[in-house]
Each structure stands twice: as C-alpha cells, then as structure tokens.
Design goal:
By secondary structure, this protein is mainly alpha-helical. 74% of the residues lie in helices and 0% in strands. The chain has helices at residues 6-16, 22-42, 47-73, 84-90, 94-122, 126-139, 141-155. Helix 2 (22-42) runs antiparallel to helix 3 (47-73). 22% of the residues are buried.
C-alpha cells in the first residue's frame, strides 16, 4: 500500500474531521516555516511580510497548532520541566517533541521577522542581514547573536528601543 501524499492526507482530514498524523503535521509546519524564511530573505522591499503576514499570520497559525498539541498531549506525557531528567522523559514522547519543535519554529521565525524590521528601520542593508537570518533559521540564538553583532557594527550601539538613539 502506497503512502498518501501530504496534500491528500491534509484534505482527507479536513473532509472527514479526522486529526492529522503527527508526521503530517510536522511536515506541514516545517514546510510552511521554510516558505516563510524564503519570503523573509528574498522580499526585503515588501515590509508587509516581516511586519504583518509572517509574524501574525504564519506565527499565529503555528502558535494555535502548538496550543492544540499542548492541550491535547501534555496531560498524558510523563516527565516535567523541573529537572534535566524530567525534561528528557517529557521529550521521549513524540507528540511532545512535535510541540517543542513547533515552539522553536515560531520563536525563531518571530525573531527573524524582528531582525528584518529592525534592520530596515535602522538602515542596515538587507544583504548584511541575510547571514543572520540563515543562522537564526538554522541555529536560533546564534543567528540572533550574529544579527546583534551586525547591528552593533552598523549603528555603534545596542539600544533596542523603538526609536534609534542619537549620539
């Protein structure tokens, strides 16, 4: 028996009211986020993507998915957040791992959107932010650190207020 395509699985769930399999949900969230990152990187002249569509639309939908997973799966999971052993036990559950992965996807994507908006506001050329965006996508905090370094070199300060400071 051949596996159904992701699209077929998605439409089947919509039509029957069934829930998506964790692997299908993983693929949908991963692919949607990858498209979001591509859009952030290749559309610097369209601030609506980094300002509204991706942080509110995509991150909002992923956050709702995360909420669903937390409400439906965390109650039955063994483990806790109070010790490393407890977290290891908690993340031995594939449904909890999926929720954790979506958690990372949302926050990294939101940070990437902030980097694009902040760079635009400060006049940092987009090409300078692309390495930070790629690293934020792949390695989260290292990408943020890279962006903050670029920001410091370009602006000579790390004031994170909404208005650029004048020296």
């Amino acid at each position: 028996m051949q596996k159904a395509s992701l699209r077929e699985a998605f439409y089947s769930c919509i039509q029957t009211g069934a829930t998506l399999l964790p692997e299908s949900l993983f693929l949908i969230c991963n692919n949607a986020t990858a498209i979001g990152w591509i859009v952030l990187i290749v559309t610097p002249r369209f601030p609506v993507f980094a300002g509204r569509l991706i942080p509110l639309g995509l991150c909002g939908l992923l956050s709702l998915t995360y909420l669903y997973l937390v409400v439906s799966d965390f109650g039955s999971a063994q483990g806790s957040f109070t010790s490393l052993d407890g977290v290891t036990q908690l993340f031995s559950n594939p449904d909890v791992v999926l929720a954790g992965w979506i958690h990372y996807l949302v926050f990294d994507m939101f940070v990437g959107c902030w980097e694009v908006r902040d760079a635009r506001r400060l006049g940092i050329p987009h090409w300078m932010t692309v390495p930070a965006l790629l690293l934020t996508f792949l390695l989260g905090p290292i990408g943020l650190l890279t962006y903050l370094s670029i920001r410091l070199i370009h602006t000579r300060n790390l004031n994170l207020d909404d208005q650029p400071s004048h020296q």
